[in-house]
Design goal:
- This protein is mostly beta strands.
- It has two helices and 17 strands.
- The longest helix has 19 residues.
- The chain is elongated.
- InterPro entries: DUF1684.
Length: 313
């Protein structure tokens, strides 16, 4: 499973899914006083978090970042004409030619026939047509002026993702509000390894369910109450990736949950730094294909740390 890092777990425009309604739960205090955080001074943590967030914003707002998305189109079997004309199967932005070409999907393999007079490049070289890969790598990205597009695979579906560094979402970005940095939300947790890596069912905004490998469970305590999170991991050397929801999703943070990375367990411990909890790509664009929190990762807890909602999302 590809995790949106994200490229990766990863429509036609879709509505942002709302978190399922939960019964009233007494919110925890803002600062979990009885958690045992690693010994980090507030000033150091604040500086580290600020530097991390600056890098996160730089990635988000880069020419290849999520804010540059301007389209996502799913391919049907057979021919898919595309261009800016409204009678195309895939309608591209108005700045593009009326007819760009035809993407032919045959049994999961895609070839592109380019309309005469249209100039495309791939990896800096003229591309006159042929097979196109769904690797999502830079070498397979097709360019038409400032527009960039490439084939993606999500389960058994193939689509075309379209990016433009001139996208309004990128040009009009105004920063992401966050909660104040707090050492209380940098929590040392216990890691309970699975006897063997197990498969975790991860729902997505597409209405599908993907499988990811989960190496175990992270257990932490806030105000005397124990909570559990199941992370996913692509291989044993990589960080733990946590897709979680909490009670702030109702009003203050993104409704469909947030993401968090943690270093692999050491001596049976994992550090959860919720100051680095961040919004998924779907919080910024209707053209992303994000994973959603598994049911067991929906915390009955207010995690007042990390990124808040962006705009009206």
């Amino acid at each position: 499973m590809r995790i949106a890092r994200l490229t990766p777990l990863l429509t036609l425009a879709f509505a942002t899914p709302a978190v399922a309604t939960r019964p009233p739960v007494k919110p925890a205090m803002m600062k979990p006083a009885d958690t045992k955080a690693p010994d980090t001074k507030h000033s150091e943590l604040e500086a580290e978090t600020r530097a991390w967030h600056q890098k996160r914003i730089a990635s988000l707002t880069s020419e290849e970042g999520w804010l540059s998305l301007v389209g996502l189109h799913w391919l049907k079997e057979g021919d898919n004409r595309f261009g800016s004309a409204q009678d195309n199967d895939l309608v591209f932005p108005a700045s593009t030619p009326a007819r760009i070409g035809t993407l032919t999907n045959k049994g999961g393999k895609v070839t592109l026939t380019v309309q005469p007079g249209v100039t495309l490049t791939r990896a800096g070289q003229p591309f006159t047509g042929g097979e196109v890969s769904d690797s999502e790598s830079e070498k397979d990205m097709l360019m038409l002026g400032s527009l960039r597009f490439y084939v993606i695979r999500r389960g058994d579906r193939l689509g075309v993702r379209v990016k433009d560094p001139e996208a309004p979402a990128r040009k009009q970005f105004h920063g992401i509000p966050t909660w104040p940095v707090s050492t209380a939300w940098r929590i040392e947790a216990r890691f309970e390894p699975a006897a063997t890596p197990r498969k975790l069912a991860v729902p997505t905004v597409l209405g599908t369910v993907d499988e990811a490998t989960s190496p175990g469970t992270i257990v932490f305590t806030v105000n005397g109450q124990e909570y559990r999170l199941d992370p996913v991991q692509e291989n044993s050397s990589e960080q733990l990736f946590i897709i979680f929801a909490d009670l702030t999703n109702r009003t203050e943070s993104y409704g469909a949950g947030r993401f968090l990375y943690a270093d692999p367990p050491k001596d049976g411990k994992v550090v959860l730094d919720f100051n680095r909890a961040y919004n998924p790509p779907c919080a910024f664009s209707p053209y992303a294909t994000c994973p959603l929190p598994p049911p067991q990762n929906r915390l009955k807890l207010r995690v007042e740390a990390g990124e808040k909602r962006y705009g009206d999302h």
